[in-house]
Each structure stands twice: as structure tokens, then as C-alpha cells.
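Incident log, structure service

09:12 report received: a user says their structure output differs between two submissions of the same chain.
09:20 pulled the input from the user's history:
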Amino acid sequence: PPRSFSGFSGGGLWQVRVMRTPERELKVKDRLLSGVAFYQNPPIGNRRVIKCHGRDGIYTHAIQAIKNEAS
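09:34 re-ran on a clean worker, output below:
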């Protein structure tokens, strides 16, 4: 993997469910936006952590924004 993901803020974190077809091929069954990246910590040894806003932070605000637009 890359040593750094610099410049990624706002990138999507996707949960992808994959299934195997009868022909043994992999196929995407569905996908869900599960987070938005906002920070990468400085390296500690060979490790970095990318912090993300999770589903609640995304969908709670999205649903509220849609409700506000509808009213």
C-alpha cells in the first residue's frame, strides 16, 4: 500500500459486499457509503491511521438536510 494518502480529505470509505457467481466469478452485490476520510496521522513506525466520519455522521446530516429542503 502507499506510504501516505496525503491529499485524500473528503474521500469516501465504501463498504462493498461481494458474491461469487455459479461460474466462480466475483461480482459486487451492493455497496454502501460508510464514511468520509478526514485525517491521516503522522507515521508511527510503519503504521498510519486514517480517521473517518462514520455512517451516523454522514446519514444523520444527509437525512436532516433532505428534510430541511422538503419543508
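09:41 both user submissions now match this output. Likely a transient worker issue. Closing.
09:42 reviewer note: The chain has a mean pLDDT of 88. The CA atoms of residues 42 and 48 lie 6 Å apart.
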